[in-house]
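Annex B. Sample input.
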Amino acid sequence: MLLDRVIKLKNEILAEFPKDEYFNNFEATLDDKIVLCNWEVYEKIFQNLDEKAWQILKEKSKKHFKGSRVNNWKEPFFNHLNEAFGYSYLLKMGFSDIQYIEDLKKKNASVPDLKCKNDVGELICEVKTINTSKEELEQRKKLVAREGFDSKLNKVFIEKLESTILQAKTQISNYNVDAQKLVFLIIHYDDFFVIYNDEYKTQISLYLKENFENEVVAFDIHQLRHEYIN
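Annex B, continued. Sample output.
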């Protein structure tokens, strides 16, 4: 697969931030099959965006390119790139007129990411990424053998899941309280190899049913790690 839009984004970032090291020797890193596979997933998703949405996504991601998180380089940058997964989900579900919401402030709160239409009316979508925990990132840096992961999601993850959904709901309501609402989640588990993927999905689905029964929350698992593609 040609990385057409990925390369264009990379070139624009290098032009704007020539001293930043993130995309140094980018082409050489693609010799690593895992790195190439990760960028191919992004390219496939990027291709689903219409030209206007693609331009907005690039500008948003570049705006946050210099942001960082301890032990997880460029996390804010990838959080915004992940909005393309939400756009693609809406497209797949048959919504029309998918657009980015202008980055304006309303009632002193951040606006949600996307709006679209179906037979019922307007739907507002906020895309959130739940990233690897601070504790897990610190463990990975130690590069020492340790016990495997638990098949049960811990309390810290569940609390983060809940707070993320509630924040997204607030953003949507601040923009249009009467519209249909969709919270789309990209989830990066601490379990790097997602050994318990089925168990985690079942637990999350059950939690959503019990706690957000009347809400529309969709989630997807994309273990695309920044540490793999930097």
